[in-house]
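Bench notes, afternoon.
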Amino acid sequence: MVSVKIIKVNSGVAVNKRLALSLFKKNVTLITEIFMKKYFVLILLMLLMFSACERSGKKAVVKKPVLLSSTTSTQDSGLFDYLLPLFTSDTGWPINVVAVGSGAALQMGRDGTADVLLVHSKDDEIKFVADGFGIHRFDVMYNDYIIAGPAQSSIAYNKIASETFRAVAAGKLPFISRGDRSGTNTRELSIWKSANINPEANPNYRSVGQGMGATLRMANELNAYTLCDRATWLSAKDISLAIICEHSPELLNYYGVIAINPAVHPQINAEGAKAFIDWILSKRGQELIAAFGVAEFGAPLFTPNAGAN
């Protein structure tokens, strides 16, 4: 009887094992079916993608950052902080800016250390392209310069830049020049030249080799005169100087954009430079320029000018 009982127990265990194994197999099959149904579409899409990549032999394109060399006036005005994230969002091209004077920016172009330039020294830009360093110069926008000076200036408000400079020279009044070969510095020197004046003859004339924002702040601290682009003037904070001269024909300030010539510098990001130029000259880019500053100042800081091309 004992042996019979043992046999029954062993038989039951065997049956239980077979039942458990059967249930396990069924559960595995059920889980597999659920998994395959849930992820079938995803797996299929991945297989199709890998198959397409294998057939085409192409890899995902990683866009190299565009290096833009430009002026301190565009940087100090806040224009790039406003425009460039939108350029990247619209095109997928990352972009970095080096803000220097126009002369230094053009030299970066000659050296092949920039991909594209946005500067405001038109005669120098035309020569840059003629010398083969740039592909083409396009008009982008313009604003104007103002001559700022002490609020209690001995020079009356006027609209003739050369006459204002003559009065500064005659009175040996303090004048702060950027002195950095920038577009603003070049324009200032051209006004002195048109007035037949050597500014260095004035003992209170100082050439400081600084960008626009720093030059304006220095003039403010010294209660001196200076030439400043209107965008930087309007966006500057805590300035006690006043506008002494504006709206003179000599004070118009045109900005151009130039892609560096890849035939001269093959290493530059020619595709990215073209993408930036196409975007900033497009309806979208020009409308954004026209809107910049309106909310804060009631008028745009720059006037789009691509229509002149």
